[in-house]
Design a protein that fits this description.
Elements: E1 17-22, H1 35-38, H2 42-50, E2 55-58, H3 76-85, H4 92-102, H5 109-115, E3 123-129, H6 138-151, E4 156-163, H7 173-189, E5 193-201, H8 214-226, E6 231-233, H9 236-244, E7 257-259, E8 275-278, H10 287-294, E9 310-315, E10 327-329, H11 338-344, E11 349-354, H12 355-364, E12 378-383, H13 399-411, E13 417-422, H14 424-429, H15 434-457, E14 461-466, E15 502-507, E16 515-517, H16 529-536, E17 550-552
Parallel strand pairs: 1-13, 1-14, 3-4, 3-8, 4-5, 6-7, 8-9, 9-10, 11-12, 11-13
Antiparallel strand pairs: 2-15, 5-7, 14-15, 16-17
Helix pairs in contact: 6-7, 7-9, 13-15
The structure holds 3-phosphoglyceric acid (3PG) and cobalt (II) ion.
Length: 560
């Protein structure tokens, strides 16, 4: 099919459309643990109070964004995929589940490739150890890689764990580790030499993203490949328990450790002839390690030793770079995204965020493609994030800088769409620090104001929405929704995303007075936003897109 979009019968072209994605900004009842509610957010409050025809909630979790079940919380990858693609695709988590259920995973090229090393080499499994379902799932590790690989000939297995505490509660690493140790013990009884070889906290070891800080990947490399780390233990459970006692230590930021034998020798460095699988299905925080494991020419840090291995990713993490070249499950083929359509219809787009979310409004938005569809029409700008400081120490992050870039782009008259991600609700929310999150939410609201003021100035249109919830619920609750308190009355902060819906607001002087949200799409989700944005640019959306959220009557709608 062609790329030409039909003209919208009622909405004209040529208005600047400002698209703001508030990261980690869901809707929940007022509550002391709802940081968005507690924070001073006059801009977002005004949108909500403004008019029910131009503010509503949409789904941002579960099957609405292509996740396996409605118990799966939303996340930025699937959220931005849905926002940008306008269609719902089965996402990585689900594709792996399906390949496992059918057994096809063992027939695939990727598995056959690593299998060639099983006879003489070790199989190394590197990834995030939790049931968060955002980057990985422990049951997939258990089923596919421990049980499945040993049944398919792996005789020596080494697991390199990354503790979570971000998509799951802090401290839960211990339970996941016990589960894993139990599985490994069973394998040992069956004659498979299976052990944990190294570990570290996901935010400090290996799982950096968008090349924010290569030292994170290097720390992992040293432990996983070279078998070197500042902390050495004979037992992983002991390692995690001990390291968690350290000052400010938590699952996300555990220092790297290696497991050694009685003589102090690491039990599982990665050597020539070994096989390696990175078992995260999500790309953003694994692709840097994939580069280090696969690229001959690599200058991001000194690898010291570059072992000749057979390496496969759970998925292919970068479709353009074809990285890694071997993978166990083919990634979702997200096609015909709104970015590509709009570029093919002459729309000039500017996209901006700070480093830690930059790929969200570019790579994820465009269906996991890096680069421009048409460099003459698009400009993507990255504001460097602070590195080395947790975001609860700098909760304002680069919100103002991103907003000022967006403002300048809007006022420049060079762009039809100006798209940003404001990261605070999510990145500060993940620290579990309520006070800091409240400051972050205020900063995000101020950033939105800067952008809406610019839209106002040029007679444009705005769309303000979010990718999933986070900051609106910051406490672990029981089934009835009450915060769980321990004996001393303390609550446990919720560092993860949530199942909550997110707001979407439209407006601005350029929006036709008869445009409003339709009432027939109560179950709409993030994937309905792309068609909506296309309408606001004056186009009809393609038929295979999820339907637009808006309708336009010839007369101005009446305020209810
Ligand atoms: C992360 O990678 O930071 C979290 O696991 C998920 O957060 P995101 O989906 O908002 O990026
Ligand atoms: Co997040």
């Amino acid at each position: 099919a062609g790329w030409k979009l039909a003209d919208h019968p009622r909405l004209g072209k040529g208005k600047v459309v400002g698209v703001v994605v508030l990261d980690g900004w869901g809707e929940a009842p007022p509550d002391p643990f709802n940081c968005i509610h507690v924070a001073d957010t006059p801009t977002l409050d005004a949108l909500k109070k403004g008019s029910p025809e131009r503010w509503r909630l949409i789904k941002a979790h579960g099957t609405a964004v292509g996740l396996p079940t409605d118990d799966d919380m939303g996340n930025s990858e699937v959220g931005h995929n849905a926002l940008g693609a306008g269609q719902i695709y089965a996402q990585g988590a689900k594709l792996v589940d399906m390949a496992l259920a059918s057994g096809k995973i063992y027939e695939g090229e990727g598995f056959k490739y690593i299998q060639k090393s099983f006879e003489t080499g070790t199989l190394h499994l590197i990834g995030l150890l939790s049931d968060g379902g955002v980057h990985s799932r422990i049951d997939q590790l258990q089923q596919l890689l421990l049980k499945g690989a040993s049944e398919h000939g792996a005789k020596r297995i080494r697991v390199h764990i990354l503790t979570d505490g971000r998509d799951v509660l802090d401290g839960s690493s211990v339970t996941f580790l016990e589960t894993l140790e139990n599985d490994l013990a069973k394998l040992q009884e069956m004659g498979v030499d299976a052990r944990i070889a190294s570990g570290g906290g996901r935010m400090y070891v290996t799982m950096d993203r968008y090349e924010n800080d290569w030292q994170v990947v290097k720390r992992g490399w040293d432990a996983q490949v070279l078998g070197e780390a500042p902390h050495k233990f004979q037992n992983a459970l002991e390692a995690v328990k001990k390291l968690r006692e350290g000052p400010k230590a938590n699952d996300q930021y555990l220092p790297p450790f290696v497991i050694v034998d009685e003589s102090g020798k690491p039990v599982g460095p990665i050597l020539d002839g070994d096989a390696v699988v990175t078992f995260n299905f999500r790309a953003d925080r694994m692709v840097m390690l994939a580069k280090a494991l696969e690229c001959e020419n690599f200058d991001k840090f000194d690898r010291v030793r570059f072992p000749k291995i057979r390496y496969a990713g759970m998925l292919q993490y970068d479709g353009e770079l074809k990285l890694p070249s071997h993978y166990l499950v083919a990634p979702p083929e997200i096609e015909r995204t709104s970015g590509e359509y709009l570029a093919n219809n002459g729309i000039h787009t500017y996209a901006c965020s700070e480093t830690v979310k930059f790929g969200h409004v570019t790579f994820f938005w465009n269906g996991n493609r890096s680069g421009y569809f048409n460099p003459n029409l698009e400009k993507y700008e990255e504001i460097p994030s602070d590195t080395g400081i947790p975001f609860n120490i700098q909760p304002k992050m680069k919100a103002r800088e991103v907003a000022e870039k967006a403002r300048d782009a809007i006022l420049s008259n060079k762009f039809d769409q100006v798209r940003v991600n404001i990261a605070n609700g999510d990145m500060v929310g993940h620290t579990g620090d309520l006070e800091a999150t409240i400051i972050g939410c205020k900063a995000a609201d101020e950033a939105v104001k800067i952008i809406l003021d610019a839209v106002e100035q040029v007679g444009g249109i705005f769309v303000v929405t979010a990718d999933h919830g986070n900051a609106e619920d910051m406490v672990k609750r029981d089934k009835s929704g009450k915060p769980i308190r321990d004996r001393n009355g303390n609550v446990q902060p919720l560092t993860s995303h949530t199942l909550n819906p997110v707001p979407i607001a439209i407006g601005g002087p350029g929006l036709a007075s008869g445009a409003r949200f339709r009432e027939d799409l109560q179950d709409a989700g993030l994937a309905n936003v792309a068609a909506t944005v296309m309408n606001l640019h004056g186009f009809e959306a393609p038929n295979h897109y999820e339907p637009t959220l808006i309708e336009v009557s010839a007369a101005p709608y009446l305020k209810s």
